[in-house]
Amino acid sequence: MYTVQRPSRSEYLPLRGIEYHVRLWEPENADGALAPLFLAHGWMDVAASYQFVVDAFSADFLAGRTIIAADWRGFGLTKPGLRVDHYQFVDYLADLDLLLDHYAPGQAVDLVGHSMGGNVAMLYAGARPARIRRLVNLEGFGLAATTPGQAPARYAQWLDETRALARGELDLKSYDSLESVAQRLRKTNRRIDQDKALWLAQHWAAPDADGRWHILGDAAHKVVNPHLFHVDEVLALYGAITAPTLAIEASDDSLAQWNKGRYTLDEYHARLQHVRDCRTARIDDAGHMLHHDQPEVVARLIEDFLRAP
Prior knowledge:
Layout: E1 9-15, E2 18-25, E3 37-40, H1 51-56, H2 59-62, E4 67-70, H3 90-103, E5 109-114, H4 116-127, E6 132-138, H5 151-166, E7 174-175, H6 178-188, H7 194-204, E8 205-207, E9 213-215, H8 231-239, E10 245-250, H9 254-259, H10 265-272, E11 278-283, H11 290-293, H12 295-307
Parallel strand pairs: 3-4, 3-5, 5-6, 6-10, 10-11
Antiparallel strand pairs: 1-2, 2-4, 7-9, 8-9
């Protein structure tokens, strides 16, 4: 199994009626001079997913720097609170707002987000531009454009899926062993090494009393958002971002795989032009989980960007 180079500690923070699980990597000599670095994970992922990147950071970059990553509501060790049958995207922004208030009151922070976490980071940076010093988006592409005519079908889909959830039809699959969970991770990501998959599996899932391993994600996350994705609103938020921004993407074109031409990298790059100070980078031999595939490269890109004057 993978050997952690820089262990984290966990704590729980009462937040909006939920006990939020927060993972912290804290140097002994932290004096608050350096902006804290917040790491936001993606959909059906956990904060521990960033361990490989944290281990790849250089010692001088980490000197005096606190790194903070939380399990989003309904993921990992953060519980959903009262039973819910769907999740609203704006709740992640509200949660992040209070997390920053708690860990970095009155201080601008560096924010890195992957996939869903990248989308949260981009929108939050537009809504609270003064709170973000530097912004890094790892494959947080946003969604394909929608039209008002799609609303009736979307609302009907949402109604159907909330019923399916109540019937147990959306329950997540369980596994007979930690090794089986690791195999599931490797099936999704062909590049992740077995040792890393085994280490991550113990944070991505947990055993029940009978020894069956269950993914630490609420099945309600599978229920579609009833509200359509409005590109014009997103572009207005992008335009309000004041933090220098780095958008990193992998050589595997995830958008092409997911959207089948409905939304392309060219369209994503066009949206990024609305961010006043944005540059892009591409990582070769990497897929959507680029922070697992090439953690050293991701770490160097983040370091160089956060250190640049």
